[in-house]
């Protein structure tokens, strides 16, 4: 029987265990350069006992930023500033992937430079608010991406992936979940286009397929993971038939030799089983545990074959040495949602504070 503490090969790397540190927004890239800080090197190195670390969302371009003080990978300064982070993780024996997250329509002009505005597949504003340095602000109507804009955005993802490798990352995870740009193209409510980038299933999966393909060509498919969250309503997303869309997406991507598929699970375990069966490679699961954070019981999902690796968010914040504690049965520090933003979304609910 395979357990969470058995090694696994991923992207040519020997992982010591199958416990993944999930990507979690931290907002610690203070200053105008959106560059990572010394604190971030300490934070990730403390958690290097994870089989795999996936970083907080990193914007691949200036317009891709949706939250205050989130880091980028699109300038030389950012690339240089990430190197101490990756070096610290590697010295501690860890493996780290950069999550590339373009937030699309999620954001606000006050967070963007040079008069930029949030963008999306269609000019449809999200309901709700986003946190800014001036406090919560209503989402704005995004600029609809033109054909040229789409091509540039795909190129931005590929360039950021090359920058990630230059900065010492072992690979990248493309954020296609939680209502951000790739997810916005997949969902019919946010993608109301009638051209080749919208309409039916084939049109709506096209952006995700082309981003993955471009990034795989840039750095090698074995260094590329994809995160999805079928049916996740976060950030005002509506998907009435996620099974059809995501089955088609996985069918198009199955032959690209990607590092892994990372599923942020909803309440439909049957859909999880279907996607697991359809995916030929490593299957990482961030299980649905609403209203609680993912706990030790999730390790059974590896033992019964539901997943190859299991991702932990909130519990990793409170327990930097989480794999050791999981192996010994605890004790576990209790996550305090009032002190951080992000986590593994406790199902589909994000934490409101942006204070860490």
Task: Describe the structure in your own words.
The structure is a single chain. With 356 residues, the protein is an alpha/beta fold. 30% of the residues lie in helices and 16% in strands. Strands 3-4-5-10-11-12-13-14 form an 8-stranded parallel beta barrel. A two-stranded antiparallel ribbon has the order 1-2. The chain is globular.
First-to-last CA distance: 39 Å
Q: Indicate the radius of gyration in whole angstroms.
A: 18 Å
- Helix fraction by DSSP (H/I, runs of at least 4): 25-40%
* Secondary-structure class: alpha/beta
By DSSP, the count of extended strands is 14
Mean pLDDT: 93
Helix/strand order: EEEHEHEEEEEHEHHEHEHEHEHH
Quick rundown:
By secondary structure, this protein is α/β, with parallel strands linked by helices. It has 10 helices and 14 strands.
Characteristics:
356 residues; globular; 10 helices; alpha/beta; eight-stranded parallel barrel; two-stranded antiparallel sheet
Topology:
Layout: E1 8-10, E2 13-15, E3 19-21, H1 38-46, E4 52-58, H2 76-91, E5 96-100, E6 119-120, E7 129-132, E8 135-138, E9 143-144, H3 147-166, E10 171-176, H4 181-186, H5 201-219, E11 224-228, H6 242-253, E12 260-264, H7 269-278, E13 282-286, H8 300-303, E14 309-312, H9 314-318, H10 322-328
Parallel strand pairs: 3-4, 3-14, 4-5, 5-10, 6-9, 10-11, 11-12, 12-13, 13-14
Antiparallel strand pairs: 1-2, 7-8
Helix pairs in contact: 1-2, 3-5, 5-6, 6-7
